[in-house]
């Protein structure tokens, strides 16, 4: 699929590539912190770290070649994408293997390594694939972006539920990210599956912006908890305390969701509760006037 | 804005939130109803790492009654008063546990233990008063006179630190004074993570220390009918029955703990293993304990749960005759040694002459063994591991004594 032409500001395909580069870089830092907690006990724990660093560099290197050498951009992107999918799925198995496969209880699921976390790689891999396989100017493109943002919020929902369950939701505020990500899931799912209008898209954007706020509050609360946490050094406190980067997943996914909504907007009627859907022949369906 | 998408979105979000609440509610209350967030985390977080690093520790804990009652890792590992606090992956813990941790829930048991010979007396038997606070010595002396106010055993200096550390201290640390001001460790008998009543009731648990030539209780038990029947029927016994409600239906064959500590058929439970003992059998010359009559009555109350009074009286009478006879034999040997010292024949420090060891082995090995054998139904230990070597050593002692006297007489003045 050839890259879209136009200003970088409106080049949503470029924004997705930038999002992926930023996220692989962020994952490198996140994995370093998360697996340091485990002191990289298994050699396999280095795989996502090295992969994140390599993927960040490789992707950042080929994004500028998107127009001049589209084949390089496409093929390197595919390679990174497939590897990311594999790393993510293998990670889920490894994380569950820490305890859940031996003792299948809610407790073991709660305290096992966060099994949903590696799916971030799978999500990023699928995002890179979609950005190459789906025409960026079709309504299908933003739908995939919204779908993957939705997947991210499902991950956030599970992540914040199991992570805070470790504390037994000792502070009732810990329910906040669970509830807010549930709202994001509900609204983004409707964007994909129901007939909507521009007003609903704007409401979705507001719902997403609230997620960003929840993430910022979460970051502050996690940082504050880490400062109070027992530990000789700040690094130790961060390792054993509340994961500071976890709440930042919210604003991160807000960015992805907003890109999707932004690109989807022209394909949604202003007032009618109708969405143009791609037809079976690849063309667009006629809006249904209810 | 169309209403339908908003409605669907709200229903979906609400459904997810309700589902999250329901899943969380399905967790066992004992995991979540904790006074601090750290105690909630400890209900699963500790195991997550330690299953990888020390699987058996977590597995043993999961088998324990503590786990069944929701007592989690941090409950025991939270620092007690005066204990060193250690930062450990987000938790503040006491890495090394003492009786000070157990007493936070089991105070009456700790107090019984403190009064016993397992506490300060056990430590002082090797190390003397070293490490014990004056008030700890004072307390111990009130219940075990002469047990704690004593010098270190002379063998500790002669054999050296490594022998003491890897040998004597391994058993006698059951009464070690801890840095937090408490004495001893409950895990010596109950083991660390199982905290098991069943394990504490096993003869082999007591036999970790009560074995060998100086106190052959485990070997004597193995020889006795009690021991034979225990091995034959161990699987039929309820070794983990609660101590306060233990009956002869649970333990119809006794182990050490059944007779010396358990509350069999309504009898009082005690963590003072000498509470039902009437004599100081470990001494060279055995004397009755100050509480002899009460202690003997208490033990006979246990015996009578399985045996008829005439049998019990006969066993006691026979055993007491062995005590008297052993006392006489040790007395003879002791007088030989005292005579040698009095006459200036033996002037060296203890454990420097072969005759010192002959005398020490005579009362410390053979004398004790014959007395323990008599009370515990170990005929072979009364005879071939007790009286026979006692006789042989008496002959040897006399010969060595006479040789020393001849040597002394021929020495130029």
Short description:
The complex is a heterodimer of chains A (290) and B (413). Chain A is mainly α.
What does this structure look like?
The complex is a heterodimer of chains A (290) and B (413). With 290 residues, chain A is mainly α. Helices cover 66% and strands 0% of the residues of chain A. Chain A has ten helices and no strands. In chain A, helix 1 crosses helix 9 (234-240), helix 2 runs antiparallel to helix 3 (70-97) and helix 7 packs antiparallel against helix 8. The radius of gyration of chain A is 20 Å and the shape is globular. Chain A starts with 11 loop residues before the first helix and ends in a 26-residue tail after the last helix. Chain B is mainly alpha-helical. Chain B contains 22 helices and two strands. Chain B has helices at residues 3-25, 29-32, 37-42, 45-53, 55-62, 65-68, 73-77, 99-115, 117-127, 134-143, 154-159, 161-172, 187-190, 197-200, 203-206, 217-223, 225-233, 256-260, 292-303, 309-342, 354-376, 379-410, and strands at residues 86-88, 91-93. In chain B, strands 1-2 form a two-stranded antiparallel sheet. In chain B, a hairpin with a 2-residue loop joins strand 1 (86-88) and strand 2. In chain B, helix 20 packs antiparallel against helix 21. The longest helix of chain B is centred in the last third of the chain and has 34 residues, at 309-342. Chain B is elongated and about 125 Å long. The model of chain B has no long low-confidence stretch (mean pLDDT 94). Classes of the chains: A mainly alpha (290), B mainly alpha (413). Chain A binds chain B through residues 37-38, 41, 98-99, 102, 106-108, 110-113, 157, 161, 165-171, 175, 178-179, 182-183, 185-187, 189-190, 194-197, 199-200, 203, 229-232, 236-237, 239-241, 273, and chain B through 1-2, 4-6, 8-14, 16-17, 20, 23-24, 26-28, 31-34, 36-37, 40-41, 43-45, 47-49, 51-52, 87, 89-92.
């Amino acid at each position: 699929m050839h890259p879209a032409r136009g200003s970088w500001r409106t080049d949503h395909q470029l924004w997705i590539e930038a999002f992926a580069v930023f996220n692989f870089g962020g994952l490198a830092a996140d994995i370093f912190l998360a697996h340091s907690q485990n002191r990289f006990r298994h050699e396999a724990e280095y795989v996502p770290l090295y992969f994140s660093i390599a993927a960040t560099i490789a992707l950042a290197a080929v994004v500028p070649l998107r127009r001049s050498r589209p084949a390089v951009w496409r093929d390197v992107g595919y390679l990174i994408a497939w590897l990311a999918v594999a790393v993510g799925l293998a990670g889920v198995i490894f994380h569950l293997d820490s305890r859940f496969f031996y003792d299948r209880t809610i407790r073991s699921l709660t305290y096992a390594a966060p099994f949903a976390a590696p799916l971030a790689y799978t999500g990023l891999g699928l995002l890179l694939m979609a950005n190459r396989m789906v025409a960026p100017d079709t309504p299908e493109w933003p739908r995939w972006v919204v779908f993957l943002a939705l997947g991210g919020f499902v991950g956030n929902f599970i992540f914040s539920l199991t992570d805070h369950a470790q504390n037994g939701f000792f502070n009732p505020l810990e329910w906040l990210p669970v509830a807010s990500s549930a709202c994001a899931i509900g609204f983004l799912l409707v964007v994909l599956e129901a007939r909507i209008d521009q007003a609903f898209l704007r409401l979705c954007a507001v719902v997403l912006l609230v997620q960003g706020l929840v993430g910022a509050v979460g970051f502050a609360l996690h940082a504050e908890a880490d400062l109070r946490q027992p530990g000789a050094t700040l690094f130790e406190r961060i390792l054993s305390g509340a994961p500071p980067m976890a709440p930042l997943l919210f604003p991160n996914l807000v960015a992805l969701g907003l890109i999707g909504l932004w690109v989807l907007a022209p394909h949604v009627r202003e007032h009618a509760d109708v969405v143009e859907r791609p037809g079976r022949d690849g063309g667009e369906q006629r809006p249904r006037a209810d | 804005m169309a209403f339908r998408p908003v409605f669907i979105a709200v229903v979906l979000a609400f459904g997810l939130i309700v589902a999250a609440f329901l899943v969380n509610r399905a967790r066992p209350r004992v995991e979540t109803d904790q006074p601090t967030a750290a105690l909630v985390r400890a209900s699963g977080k500790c195991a997550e790492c330690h299953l990888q690093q020390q699987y058996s520790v977590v597995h043993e804990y999961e088998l324990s009654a503590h786990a069944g009652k929701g007592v989690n890792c941090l409950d025991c590992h939270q620092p007690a008063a005066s204990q060193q606090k250690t930062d450990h992956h987000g938790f503040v813990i006491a890495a090394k546990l003492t009786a000070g941790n157990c007493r936070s829930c089991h105070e009456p048991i700790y107090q019984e233990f403190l009064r016993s010979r397992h506490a300060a007396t056990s430590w002082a038997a090797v190390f003397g008063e070293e490490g014990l606070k004056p008030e700890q010595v004072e307390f111990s002396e009130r219940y075990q006179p002469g047990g704690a106010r004593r010098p270190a055993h002379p063998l500790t200096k002669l054999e050296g630190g490594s022998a003491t550390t890897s040998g004597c201290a391994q058993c006698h640390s059951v009464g070690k004074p801890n840095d937090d001001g408490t004495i001893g460790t409950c895990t010596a008998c109950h083991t660390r993570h199982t905290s098991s009543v069943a394990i504490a009731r096993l003869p082999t648990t007591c036999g970790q220390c009560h074995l060998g030539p100086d106190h052959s209780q485990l070997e004597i038990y193995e020889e006795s009918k009690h021991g034979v029947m225990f091995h034959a029927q161990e699987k039929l016994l309820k070794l983990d029955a609660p101590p306060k409600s233990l009956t002869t239906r649970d333990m119809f064959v006794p182990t050490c703990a059944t007779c010396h500590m358990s509350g069999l058929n309504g009898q009082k439970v005690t963590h003072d293993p000498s509470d039902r003992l009437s004599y100081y059998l470990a001494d060279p010359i055995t004397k009755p304990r100050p509480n002899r009559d009460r202690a003997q009555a208490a033990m006979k109350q246990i015996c009578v749960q399985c045996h008829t009074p005439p049998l019990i009286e006969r066993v006691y009478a026979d055993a007491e005759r062995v005590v008297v006879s052993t006392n006489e034999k040790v007395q003879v040997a002791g007088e030989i040694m005292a005579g040698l010292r009095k006459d200036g024949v033996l002037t060296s420090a203890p454990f420097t002459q072969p005759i010192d060891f002959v005398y020490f082995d005579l009362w410390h090995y053979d004398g004790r063994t014959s007395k323990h054998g008599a009370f515990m139904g170990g005929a072979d230990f009364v005879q071939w591991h007790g009286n026979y070597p006692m006789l042989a050593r008496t002959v040897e002692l006399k010969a060595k004594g006479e040789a020393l006297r001849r040597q002394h007489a021929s020495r130029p003045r």
